[in-house]
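Ligand: pyridoxal-5'-phosphate. Inputs:
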Amino acid sequence: MNSEQTKKTDREHVIYSWSVQGKVNPIAIDRAEGIYMYTPEGKRITDFISGLICVNVGHRHPHVLKAMREQMEKLTYISPSFTSEAKAKLCSMIAEVTPGDLDYVFLCNGGSDANENAIKTARWFTGRHKIYSAWVSYHGATAGAITLTGDPRRWPAEPGIPGVVKYFGPYPYRCPFGSEDPEECAKRTLNVLKTQIMIDGPKTIAAIFMESIVGTNGIIIPPKSYVKGIKEICEDNGILLVVDEVMAGWGRTGKWFGIEHFDVVPDIMTTAKGLTSGYVQLGAMIWNKKIWDYFYDKPFASGLTYTGHTLACAAGIANIEIYKNEKLVEKTEELGKYFTERLNCLKDKHPSIGDVRNMGLWACIELVADRKTKAPIAGYNDCNCNISSEITKRCLDMGLYTYCKWDFIFLAPPLVITKQQLDESIDVIDKALDFPDTIVRK
Ligand SMILES: Cc1ncc(COP(=O)(O)O)c(C=O)c1O
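Predicted complex:
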């Protein structure tokens, strides 16, 4: 089918996520390879956002395809109560790369499901019911995960599950407690959280959830002192620290997991996306030894039909092998430095850029109407003023797809991107930025 035929059939039957159905106008993609996607007519589009920031090893990687084919010939699925070489091997490979004693792996269908299981674990382990999560966060779309989520995607799902309490994390560019200095912002944020916990009752709190680096709400990188401070609050009060590595994990930031930048080991880690690079859906919740010991003689009452799906496990193994064999984590750290340089040049050139933030090959350009006052150009949750859709359109016209929302342009190519491909892509972003420059307050 050509694009028009595909779209016609699609629009008669397919329900789209997070969208007004009558306004959806999808691009048909026929095949993809490396960092490129192709329409049925052969138009090439650079995937500068790795699907939904998940296709870390690139599209159609031969090593993953081979591993999946071989697995499919033998076994694609068995009941979660059986084991297979693929499941056992994948979990041991995950344990090997996760920090500290995060060695015990519960396989899930994706990131939301991993967070649901982390909520259950924290409540059963501590016997407490409250779960803390940040206002500026996204943790998924299932009942518990969307309640954890701070951003407006939560609003239609309210009131959500009981017992979830919100706190402010640090946002050094727009400190919620009025400091211009990142360290001072971290200090004030921690002090407010400590007071909040004191008043709320520390013994009622099972867990604090956080994204190691806030993802779809602006790639917000916390100061190290903040993450260490959160860990201390948890330890002092018998609260579990759950770190969501769904987006930050698997080399994206130039380390295996984002939390490694802060020298903190959480009690529970959740992950998905780059675990299989989206070849088959798979997530994981990973426990430390303390939690494993607790559940050793008690039932862990959770699981789904596809828990530990064999084909997904084979895709996961192949992905981890690629991260290692192609040194993708190290390569991302190195190329990330160059990415920072290029992003800073864009900032010098374009008055509409208020801030650029990146770790490895994961960046956000934050647009402003006025650099001095930091007045936003579109504003929080502003989907109506068409700035992000216009930037997306201009990039697409030049053959590049990336994700823009509110005041943010997100950049996250597959980690297999070359320096030359990165340069070509940033040149496109550079040109697209001429548009917001025209509406900056003079
Ligand atoms: C930080 C974070 N947590 C959880 C999720 C939810 O993962 P999934 O869509 O696989 O359920 C996402 C998805 O983007 C995410 O970015």
